[in-house]
Amino acid sequence: MAAPGAGMMEGGVPTAQPPGTDMTGICFRDQLWLNSYPLDRNLVFDYFALSPFYDWTSNNEQLRMRSLHPLDLSQLSKMTGTEYVLSEVMEPHLFIMRKQKRDSPDKVTPMLAYYILDGSIYQAPQLSNVFAARIGRALYYIQKAFTTAASKLEKIGYVDSENDTTLPEPKAASKETVDIKELKRVDHILASLQHKLPPAPPPPPFPEGYVPPSTAETEKGPETQEATESQAPSVDPIIDQGPAKRMKF
């Protein structure tokens, strides 16, 4: 048997992780408990306490030891420390549990959020991690698109250069000439617009958890860059670690 609060994998190996760690890649479900008890707002906390997401040092556990309801806000508001509150309820399918730190009866700081969807418990990813993964993935595919376009343009230019050598002189003369005056006029218009427009604002800071690529990676040789370009983009907490793709406990 696994210790209270420790998850049980499908193979029967108990696992326990310290509270507060990133566990967005796993989910918890106890089908035996779900077959024995109804999942409602009165018993949902007892079910949540069986999962590895539960912190046994929370104020809710102290209320349980005193035979009080663990979600009694009148009692939790008198205490300080880590606590869980039931923020949203859509019985019997969805329950959202918020972990927060209470400093006073009126001051609380949200820490993490968990949602119980049809009996399976998940840790919700932090918004900064979602933004970092989405931005990293977008930059990856933009860089890949530019690399593919550049390689195709090089091939087109190489073919054109070969065709130029084989074409007779009369056809080469039929190519469209570039008007230098028109080119200078376009450059003048762009320069005047650049002076009229205000300077670009500084870029926003990177979200917490996003590590920008180091300058040493951009100075690597072409062989090293090709190897890094072939790597997959960063893991998305929602797309790649959604409910259907998480390890079940």
Automatic annotation (TrEMBL):
Residues 193-249 are annotated as: Disordered. Keywords: Activator, Nucleus, Transcription, Transcription regulation. InterPro entries: Mediator_Med6 (IPR007018), Mediator_Med6_met/pln (IPR016820), Mediator_Med6_sf (IPR038566). It holds the Pfam family Med6. One of its GO terms (molecular function) is transcription coregulator activity. One of its GO terms (biological process) is regulation of transcription by RNA polymerase II. The keyword Ligase does not apply. Belongs to the Mediator complex subunit 6 family. This is Mediator of RNA polymerase II transcription subunit 6 isoform X2. The lineage of its organism: Eukaryota, Viridiplantae, Streptophyta, Embryophyta, Tracheophyta.
